[in-house]
């Protein structure tokens, strides 16, 4: 019988060998190379999240699995980077079978919460309470092939967006796009626009949380080809009018923080940026752009298909698990109730927007 043991480390305690093995196992899984399940992302989160850990599963002395997580009060755990991570789970050698509650016990966790568990995570999918979808854009066959599909599936969308780009150039000034911008001022502008959007729509401002701002800035300055931040900027007359900051691997780009200057909203600079970025990403070897879960009309126009993702939690019996259920399950059930009723969801969205307007007065 193979002998298994578990070693819990901080992400920055993983060495080059562990990073190499993690990425090798990830490749063996056949899952897309989503950068949120890369050791570099776990390490970046660990710089500002003291509860960040990685459980390394060994079999006969060889690493066969990695489980990144964050540990909080009463042993309540969550996916590493929960709230900003768009792909979550464990990285395991094919054929490895682990009881999820025993894994949590070995990590000192009473629960483990996820909100973007990727498909194929057989260890945790049975504990999901909701199945969501993440729209994606396939550009592996090239941008020309993609725009052919776009014309067929969204008649007028491409034509209208390109017309607005030309109007922006005529009425504001020269339009310039930079795919991989190292522009700290543009990154700060993006965070200001995004914060204003969160407030305007009544949502929690992610950039009001110092650890998220620090994480974005750290990833923006990184240079790991397997997982690094990518800032793309659309300029008009020399000033940024739209920007996106995402996370990329060699073949997958995760759509993360898009925003634009509302003073130029009539030109749809965000959509212009999207198209320019998809074209540049296809030329750069990106095969798939993951737009992330959550409804948005532009995602419906741009997507080529959808990937399933899951929300839920593994909960162990005991005081910590009971505390998790009491603190989280009612809110989760309420969100499901609203989400499953379009008219109610629309009313809730309008109420949040009104809260945002009152907050900005």
TrEMBL record:
One of its GO terms (molecular function) is acyltransferase activity. Residues 159-299 form the BioF2-like acetyltransferase domain. InterPro entries: Acyl_CoA_acyltransferase, BioF2-like_GNAT_dom. It is an enzyme of class 2 (transferase). Pfam families: Acetyltransf_6 (PF13480). It comes from the Bacteria. The keyword DNA repair does not apply. Its EC number is 2.3.1.-. Keywords: Acyltransferase, Transferase. This is GNAT family N-acetyltransferase. It comes from Streptomyces hirsutus. The lineage of its organism: Bacteria, Bacillati, Actinomycetota, Actinomycetes, Kitasatosporales.
């Amino acid at each position: 019988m193979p002998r298994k043991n578990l070693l819990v480390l901080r992400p920055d305690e993983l060495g080059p060998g562990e990073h190499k093995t993690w990425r090798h196992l990830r490749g063996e899984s056949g899952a897309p190379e989503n950068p949120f399940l890369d050791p570099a992302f776990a390490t970046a989160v660990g710089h500002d999240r003291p509860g960040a850990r990685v459980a390394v599963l060994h079999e006969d002395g060889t690493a066969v699995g990695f489980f990144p997580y964050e540990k909080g009060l009463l042993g309540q755990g969550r996916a590493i980077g929960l709230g900003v991570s768009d792909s979550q789970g464990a990285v395991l050698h094919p054929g490895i079978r682990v009881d999820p509650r025993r894994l949590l016990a070995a990590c000192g966790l009473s629960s483990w919460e996820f909100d973007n568990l990727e498909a194929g995570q057989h260890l945790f999918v049975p504990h999901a309470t909701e199945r969501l979808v993440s729209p994606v854009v396939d550009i592996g066959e090239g941008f020309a092939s993609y725009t052919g599909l776009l014309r067929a599936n969204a008649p007028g969308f491409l034509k209208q967006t390109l017309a607005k780009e030309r109007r922006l150039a005529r009425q504001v000034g020269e339009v310039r796009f930079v795919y991989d911008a190292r522009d700290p001022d543009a990154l700060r502008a993006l965070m200001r626009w995004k914060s204003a959007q969160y407030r305007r729509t009544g949502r929690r401002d992610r950039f009001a949380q110092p650890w998220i701002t620090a994480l974005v800035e750290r990833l923006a300055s990184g240079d790991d080809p397997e997982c690094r931040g990518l800032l793309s900027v659309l300029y008009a007359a020399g000033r940024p009018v739209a920007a996106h900051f995402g996370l990329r691997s060699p073949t997958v780009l995760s759509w993360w923080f898009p925003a634009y200057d509302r003073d130029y909203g009539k030109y749809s600079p965000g959509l212009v940026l999207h198209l320019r970025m998809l074209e540049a990403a296809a030329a750069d070897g990106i095969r798939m752009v993951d737009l992330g879960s959550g409804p948005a009309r532009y995602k419906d126009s741009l997507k080529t298909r959808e990937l399933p993702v899951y929300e839920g939690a593994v909960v162990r019996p005991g005081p910590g698990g009971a505390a998790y259920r009491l603190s989280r399950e009612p809110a989760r059930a309420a969100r499901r109730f609203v989400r499953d009723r379009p008219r109610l969801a629309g009313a809730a969205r309008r109420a949040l927007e009104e809260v945002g307007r009152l907050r900005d007065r």
